[in-house]
Design goal:
two-stranded antiparallel ribbon, mainly alpha
Length: 283
Amino acid sequence: MNKIFLKLKLNLCFTYLFLILGSIIIYFPIYWTLITSFKLPISIINITYIPWIDFKPSLHAWKAVGEQAGVVKGFTNGIVVSLTSAVIAVVFGSMASYGLTRFRYKFLKFRNHDLTLWIVSQRFMPPIVVVLAFLIMFVYLGIIDTVVGLIIAYLGFNISLVVWLLKDFFKSIPIEIEESAQLEGASRLRIYWSIIFPIAIPGIVASFIICFILTWNEFLFALILTYQEAGTVPLLLAAQVTNTGIQWWRLSVLAILSLIPSIICAVILEKYMNSGLFSGSVK
């Protein structure tokens, strides 16, 4: 009995040790970035860890970022593009995923599996392959360096991602729920929006968060398709690399600020992800 208890205690100690070590590895870069944002430029090169002990904190970098042109616009553009793109992608992607799950399509030799693979293949393709085509097309359409243009560009990638993430989720929902609603005279569209969509909220919210974060952090398309008016946060971060060197203090401030929208999004939507899969759907 004592040996079993000792073994369980050792396993628990190793588990906590592993979790502590993992937490340090994950959160130390964030901590380092945070304290760097409060260092003076002259003290950046010093290896210091603890504020008020190793160095005296300063708001120099935060004030400099607050006075920097384009910061507010960059964050505003990023939020608008990320939210709009994620919402539209979730709406249309979830409907496409539901249709591929519940209906049988036939186009020439293509079936549901082939159509799904074609949609998901948009994520397999490296973005650099198509960015030049987007640039030429957007210049022709007159939507280069616009928020609308960025939203359209990101939709192609986000919709395919949502279809892939939600396909198996919809498959797990019992079809008997829909058959009962059909017997009551509900249309397919009514069944989807009133029954299936609320049930699938955990998966839909998870897909939304993933799309939001991927769009928020995307750099290549924002770099190529914008130059002044529609720039996003990754471009602000890249702009801190100047001819005189990397502005580490400003870069750290912007990096910390760039975490806030994703954290807020996750905190607000976390309760929906924790909800039961079929809560209230079957009596």
